Amino acid sequence: MSTTTHRSKPIVILLTDLFNNGGIQAYNRHLCEALATGFPQEQFIVVSMYDQPRHPALFRGNIRLVACKPRKNKFTGKWMFAMRAWWVIICRRPRFLICGHVGFAGLARFFRALTGLRYSVITHGTDVWDVKDGVKYNGLKEAQHIIAVSNYTKMRMVANGIAADKIALIFNTVDTSLFYPKAPGGGPAGCVAELHRKVLLTVGRIERSEKYKGHDCLLEAVRLLGGEYLFLVAGTGDDLQRLKEKTRALGLEEQVRFLGYVSDVELVDYYNLCDVFLMPSKGEGFGIVFLEALACGKPVIGGNTDGSVEPLMNGRLGFLVDPDDPRAIADTVRYALTHKEARTDPVFLRGEVEKQFGIGAYNQRVHEIFSGLLR
Predict the structure, then answer these.
(1) What is the pTM of this model?
(2) What string of DSSP letters covers 62-115?
(3) What is the CATH code for 11-173+358-373?
(4) Dist CA 298 CA 346 (whole Å)
(5) Tell me: the pLDDT tens digits for 184-196?
(6) CA of residue 307 relative to chain centroid, distance
(7) Residues 88-125: pLDDT tens digits?
(8) Within 13 Å of residue 210, how many CA atoms lie on the same side as its CB?
(9) How far is Cα 267 from Cα 307, in angstroms, rounded to an integer?
(10) Cα torsion at 358, 361, 365, 367 (round to 10°)?
């Protein structure tokens, strides 16, 4: 716990949640930790929409969590979150407001109109790519500062009329002490390892609204690859049943396993079990799962039309393919398994991801960006 005397006016951070699974949630946790350690003289108040009060050990002494318990009525829950955020602002009179999602930009704009409070908005991907008018857009336009997790997302906002000079980049990060090369454990991943087949893995939500992640095209690619390959699909969502039915229609029941929800501990085992990680997406703002797979030393295949190119450093750390071309994906899998080069070298991949996207690099970037904003 910090013993430094905090400034009288805190920094307020509005977040969707911290303790659920997902790339945005991981980003939120890393951001809070980076701010807390990088600015021990500051007091931060995190107002979270969906979290319940728990896991206080994750935070240092200069972060206070105000968690709004989930409510059955979604609209009521959002209304209560807005009221709680407003109460914190009028009672604590913060110096600065950080919005962890563009969905809060309109609320921040409202607070600014009433109090003059400066604010920054963190943007991730599809949440802002096509925002050209309305409440979110006006919230972005009037923000004093915007953070994008990839240059691709930045360029999409600039194309929609947001000033480029107020958008800074803070890439996603990966904790390489959690994701690292190891022998698969004795759980489900260890059982799969007994099958002695080439293992392909994809990780991500399986939602109707997120078909851009490429599951359909991957099934077609697996069909082209043949029976010597096993395709593991980690994740769940409202599109899972349709994908299972498509798997049966393609005659791939013996080649495809849907793993459902996978914890971080199990996920490390699956990364280490697989021979190639794939997510040929068309809608990634960045893609933290690429970093996790690279940290485990695995060859990675991503799409060449979205923010996926940035964790893969434009093809330096992984293979970029047309996400709509199953044959190209299948051919790239075969290439990755038969050619020795930097993109298939576990030591090189882990070293580069640590240097470019590790916690140390991320914390340094957060400090550089916010040092000016919080003055």
Answers:
(1) 0.90
(2) TEEEEE----SSHHHHHHHHHHHHHHHHHHH--SEEEESSGGGHHHHHHHHHHH
(3) 3.40.50.2000
(4) 6
(5) 766 666 566 556 7
(6) 11
(7) 999 999 999 999 999 999 999 999 999 999 999 999 98
(8) 20
(9) 23
(10) 100
Domain boundaries, the chain: 11-173+358-373, 188-356
Residue 354 tokens, joined: 């640590």
**CA–CA gap between residue 227 and residue 9 (Å, rounded):** 62
Given the candidates 3.40.50.300, 3.40.50.2000, 3.30.70.260, 3.90.1150.10, the CATH classification of the domain at 188-356 is 3.40.50.2000
Find all residues with CB under 8 Å of 21, minimum gap 6, and list them: 261
Query: SS3 for 48?
Result: strand
- Structure-token pair, residue 296: 């485990």
Structure tokens at 179: 């994701």
Per the listing, tokens 């996926």 go with 308
